[in-house]
Amino acid sequence: MIGVVLAGGGSRRFGQDKALYQFPNQSVNNAQLAVDKLTILCDEVLVSASSRNVDALTEQFVHSANINVIVDQPPFVQNGPLSGLYAVACRFDQPQDFLTLAVDYPLVSVDVLSTLANHANCYARTPVADHYTLAHMTLDHAQLRDFLLLDDYRLSYFITEVQRCNPIAFANAELFINYNTPEVTRHAD
C-alpha cells in the first residue's frame, strides 16, 4: 500500500498554504504531520503538491527515504484531488493500492488510517459528513484518465460510483474537522 498526502489544494479560503501551515500546538507543519502518520502504515509515501508549494515541499522531504513529492500531470492540472491522484497513479504501470490523507485533517489519527487500510475500497464517514480525501482504494491510471476525460472532477462521484468504495463509519466527528478556513483554525488553537 502506498500513502498519498493530498497537499496541492489552492487554500483560497484558508488564506495561506495549508500544507505548509503549522498550528501553534504542532511541532511540524500539516504536510509533515500527514507524512508521519502514513509512514507508519505505508512503505512509500507520495506527496501531491501544487506548483505553488512543490519547491518548499521538495526541499522539506529531500532527505526523507521513501517519500517523494509530485505535481499534477497534463492534461489534468489543478483540477482538485483527482488531479493529484492521477499524478500519483501515473507513476505505476499496474493498479496500485493507495491510502489517502488530505493535509487539512490534522486531527485524524493513525488508528483511523489503520482502520481504512484494513478495508478494501473504502472512505471515511462520520455522523455529519463523508470524507472522500480519507480513503483506501486500488487505482488504475488508465481508468482514472478515462473518467477525467469526461471533464468530471468530482472526487465523491469517482470514489462512490466508479471505484465503488464503501463508507467506513467513525463516531468521533471531532477527529475529522476539516481545517479549511481561518475561523476553524482559530477554534483549534
UniProtKB/TrEMBL annotation:
Domain MobA-like NTP transferase: 3-121
An example Gene Ontology molecular-function term: GTP binding
Pfam families reported in the protein's UniProt record: NTP_transf_3 (PF12804)
GO BP terms in the entry: Mo-molybdopterin cofactor biosynthetic process
Keyword terms of this UniProt record: Cytoplasm, GTP-binding, Magnesium, Metal-binding, Molybdenum cofactor biosynthesis, Nucleotide-binding, Transferase
Organism domain of life: Bacteria
Protein name as catalogued: Molybdopterin-guanine dinucleotide biosynthesis protein A family protein
Organism per entry: Secundilactobacillus odoratitofui DSM 19909 = JCM 15043
